[in-house]
Design goal:
The protein has helices spanning 9-15, 19-41, 43-69, 81-101, 105-118, 129-139, 149-172, 219-238, and strands at 174-184, 187-193, 207-217. The chain is mainly α. It has two domains: 41-173 and 218-238, no CATH class; 174-217, no CATH class. A three-stranded antiparallel β-sheet has the order 2-1-3. α3 (43-69) packs antiparallel against α4 (81-101), α5 (105-118) packs antiparallel against α6 (129-139) and α5 runs parallel beside α7 (149-172). The longest helix has 27 residues, at 43-69. The protein is elongated and about 70 Å long. The protein starts with 8 loop residues before the first helix and ends in a 20-residue tail after the last helix. 28% of the residues are buried.
């Protein structure tokens, strides 16, 4: 028993909660909750990165498919179709990745719209519909950094216009040609000949194949496509701010140490 008559006074002193320890535990709980909620809000951005990488992989398969379809005897095009067409879709994947890294929902949605628009080129591009829908749905859930939302929509629309213009330039600036193949099928020699005339005897042996091609990709169309696609990527990457430069998430208040 204590001198003041209180039996529990000594136990009360020993059982008193340390205020500093209590404040430390409360601060730790607040930071843990903030990190968990931040991770939940950041999930759409991580999923967009996964979809963007998948979109980058699909053009590789598309290029292989185009190459397999062009094994018929004919002279090669000035711009390889198996490279020029997939470059359009690879740009869409890069735009999605840039939008996710910079937390720009409008850019991610723009990449999704391009994927949906690009699936109309052929049966082989229908597979871009699924990632296109995912990018639109996930992009609308990304929390953007503080910036002018009106300007973001304009920049995203400009990127879409540049990619569409690249596709139009590539497919519109084409040419027609007539050709013949001489030599042997195992090692042919192709010669472009004037259309409307007869076979032209070329050095190299007997002609075993000839044909007429329309919609042949040209160097001019390939150059225009490259310039416009680089312009779209430069516009997207150069007008955004990364989370390293601007705080992307609301910070948990730091309380002064007592």
């Amino acid at each position: 028993m204590a001198r003041d008559g209180s039996v529990l006074s000594s136990r009360t002193v020993r059982g008193t909660v340390n205020p500093r320890r209590l404040w430390s535990v409360a601060t730790t709980c607040r930071h843990t909750w903030g990190m968990s909620t931040t991770g939940g809000r950041d999930r759409p951005r991580r999923l967009v990165l996964v979809v963007g990488v998948a979109v980058l992989g699909l053009p590789v398969a598309l290029g292989v498919f185009i190459q397999l379809q062009s094994r018929d005897p004919r002279p090669p095009e000035d711009v390889p179709r198996a490279f020029a067409i997939p470059a359009l879709y690879a740009t869409m994947g890069l735009l999605a990745i840039i939008g996710a890294l910079q937390r720009r929902p409008a850019m991610v949605v723009a990449a999704g719209v391009l994927c949906l628009a690009g699936m109309i080129l052929s049966v082989a591009t229908i597979g871009f519909a699924v990632p296109g829908l995912l990018l639109i749905l996930l992009g609308s859930r990304i929390e953007s950094l503080p910036r002018r939302h009106g300007s973001e929509a304009v920049i995203a629309a400009a990127a879409v216009l540049l990619v569409v213009s690249a596709a139009v330039a590539l497919l519109a600036m084409t040419a027609e040609r007539c050709w013949q193949a001489t030599g042997s099928p195992a090692d042919p020699t192709y010669t472009v000949i004037p259309c409307g005339g007869g076979d032209v005897l070329a050095a190299g042996g007997q002609t075993f194949a000839n044909g007429f091609d329309s919609g042949v990709l040209t160097r001019g169309g390939g150059l225009a496509e490259a310039v416009l696609l680089v312009g779209a990527l430069t516009l997207a990457a150069g007008t955004g701010r990364t989370p390293a430069n601007t705080a992307a998430e609301p910070s948990v208040d730091q309380a002064p140490r007592p």
